Fold:
Amino acid sequence: MTTTTPAPAATRPPTPAGPWRLARAELRRRPSALVALGVVALFAVMALAAPLLSGLGGWRPDEFDKSAVDPYLGGLPLGPLGGISAEHWLGVEPVTGRDLFARVVHGAQVSLLIAFAATAIVVLAGVAAGVAAGYFGGRVDTVLSRLMDLTMSFPSLIFMIAMMSVAKDVDRTVLMTLVIGLFGWPGIARIVRGQTLSLKHREYVDAARVSGASDWRILTRDVLPGVAGPVIAYTTLIVPGMIATEAALSYLGVGVRPPTPSWGQMIAESVAFYDTDPMYFAVPSLCLFLTVLAFTLLGDALRDVFDPRGGRA
Structure:
């Protein structure tokens, strides 16, 4: 009886690297992506630990400190750089004397909570609609595609402002999350629909269908894993847009209401003091800028890994 010997290790085909290994390799190759990941992690930890951090600083975000401002100079902070001191690590707000560090970390909690929750709504709704339209086709595809076109045809920012303005006695955080998520899902739905149309005619999907597998099993075992990469990549690119949208609505006065802090709200209030107390304007603006930039760089790197056709040539 003849026996077969295993092929030498040198002649065996290399095992293809998984997507997460490719992602880690891409992040290590890009110093900017590593820095962006660190910034994202820093702000995420800051948002999660906001009560603890403000407790370490010794001030609540809604606590006034009249001794930190000069009533004879229009309430400007006492001391250099907006009142930075051992008591107030980033200075204080003009007039009120509220601790800027406490308001920034709690503002990160509000801004990132709304952005992440709205992104979750967008991704879930977009993936569900895109997979259904691409896989089932026919009338389902027609109805969902027209709904995508209808939603994308609205001037979303104007409609958001109108909806937020007429709503009165509601939780502003929940309302902002729902309103922002309402207009964001068609973009990712179109991406998922196109990917699903490509996947549903693959040989392994046809083989599963011939073998009697149900549509649910095919969708969960074969189609969804195939669209997971582009969804992950584009999700990180959606987040900065959600953060900027929340900041814009709060800046326009239709977002979260005082005394709840928000970066956009703080920037709007600081405009009146940008020439006399530039630190009040610079601190929340810098936090917003760094967060949006970090998510953009990180999303760009992940897109090149998971969806190279969508990247730059």
Summary: Strands lie at 69-70, 76-77.
